[in-house]
Each structure stands twice: as C-alpha cells, then as structure tokens.
C-alpha cells in the first residue's frame, strides 16, 4: 500500500486553529493525523511539505522505518517543529494501517488493557467560591480528578507571580476542605514561576492539599526541577512540551516527576509515545496525557491510553465546565470520541475511529493567532 498524497489542513475550527493532516494511499484507504504546535501551525506545514517530497510512494505500513527516516533525514534532527510534523504523519499512518487490517489502533499497540479511559476535568473559573462550586458540579457528574488554574493574570496581560501564589494557595486550601480527601486535586501553573516562587507556593499549603503540580517552572533545565524536588513533596506533572524520548530521559531516569504529561501530537506520534510509556513503566511514572487539541488528538490518545499499563488520567477539555471552548465541532468531525460521564469508552472501530468532513475543512481558512504575551508589572516579559 503506497502513500500517494499528504495533505495538511491548517484551519480555524471552533475557537482555534487545528492542523489536520490527511494521508492518502493507492488502495483508497486514507488516515487522519493532527499536529500539536499550537500558534505555529504554518511552520509545521512547511516541515510536512518537505517530508511529503520523499514519502509519496513509500509503503504506508512501514511506520517505524518512516519515523526513523523523517527524524534522521536532516542534519538538524529533532525539535518541536519537526516532531510536530512527524507526530501528525505517524498518527495518520496508524489510522491507515488499522483501517486496512480492520482493527482499532490500540490493537497495533499491543491490544487494549482497559475498556474506559478515565479523565481529569479542569475548572474554567479563577480561584474563588465559584471555582469550588464548579468543582462540586464536576464531582457530581463523576469526575474524581480535577485541575485548577491560578489567580493573577489581569485584563492588561500583567502577571505577578508573588501576587498569584498567595491568593491561589489560600483558595486551594479552601477547595480541599470543601471537596474532601477522596478527590484528586491539581493545578497547572503553566511554567510561570521560578524555583523559589514554586517552593513558597507549596509551603503556603498543608501537605496533601495538592495531588499534582503541573509545569510550575520551565523544563529546559532538569537540574532546576531536581532542586525544586528537594523543596516540596507535591508530585510533579511534567512533559507536555517534550518533543522526544530524549527530552523525557533525565526526568524519568533521575526520578524527578511522577506524571508524564505526554502529548502524542508533539512527542513524535504514537510510535514515540509508546517508547516513553514503556520506559516510564520501568520507573513507576504514570502517563497523564496532554490533550488540548481536537478530536483526532483525543482519539489517538484514547488508543494510546487503552494500550499502556501505567496510566492515570487523560486530560479532557470537553467537560461541562469547558464545553463552550468549541474544540469539538460535530459539523466537522462527524465521528469522534464522546465522553460517557467522566470517561471515554474504548471503541472497536477500525483505525482511530474519527471521520472528518473534508469538504467542510477545505472551505475553512487559517487565522493567525497568538497566545497571550504576558508581562510583569515592571514591563519585563514573562511566561504564558
């Protein structure tokens, strides 16, 4: 089965761009993939177009060999742009192979180990009474793992970490008291803090307030996280920005974190994600996949989650608290994963089990979008 075309569609769907990739074959079977480098989709399209030049005509079943060739076909291998392109191609090739063999993608990954994929939901309100009430509503609908977001970003795009951590810690303590000990509670600081700020934040709360702290600092320097590890007992959830097994290496091998926030649309697709999962299993690190994109990403991650042993929760952005975001437009994705309570059922359709209205997306356009460019009160640039 030969690849005949690779078609990237960077299009605005709902409230954001999605970079959807279709791979066609000479037997009429096609597959869908998705890239995760949000806000820089055109850069990834350029990489996909370069790869297309030598992938057309190749055997679509040779997924592992294609991964190696796309990774090693340039002197400057790796990096987030190239890996996002490889991810989309790899996912689409798994979709093709599953359809051709008449099996769901998880059967290509070793078979399913669970029938339902538990998720964690996120509140959409800043710290306060309304945030706690929203968390109660999520618990009533079946969620036993909930993520919060911090206080501190104002309407001018100013974020002061020291002003954020005290207010956020105060409300997290209240949330734990109000919601009880049985629910898993975490927070995503989106790498906006320093080591000292993160330590202060954690030390403002009784031990056990948080079950995970996601991305408190940037990940480029593992030694910084090692230093932070000595200053707090809160489990770390890290890795949504990692674009290869090599970036995960120091975190897994040095026992720095407890949850891998792996993103199948950024790390190198399902081929690379399965390698990271096996490596993590050997070090008792659980997979907690990042899933902020569209239904193709969700479907691929559901198959991944079904096939690995060391799994905790899958991120969902389709809970009642965040459903307004518009990522899951059924006019575009006519078949897609759908929550059953707080979990995604594992289906048995061949391939990924996603169907896309290609004629609709051909009519959509790309819109330039920028993530917030946050600043400190003194005018200096800080992380979003």
TrEMBL record:
GO terms, biological process: amino acid catabolic process
GO molecular function, one term: magnesium ion binding
Keywords: Lyase
Domain of life: Bacteria
InterPro entries (UniProt xref): DgoD-like, Enolase-like_C_sf, Enolase-like_N, Enolase_C-like, Mandel_Rmase/mucon_lact_enz_CS, Mandelate_racemase_C, Mandelate_racemase_N_dom
Residue ranges occupied by any Mandelate racemase/muconate lactonizing enzyme C-terminal domain in the UniProt entry: 128-235
Family matches, as Gene3D superfamilies: Enolase-like C-terminal domain, Enolase-like, N-terminal domain
Record-linked PROSITE patterns: MR_MLE_1
Protein name, per record: Mandelate racemase/muconate lactonizing enzyme family protein
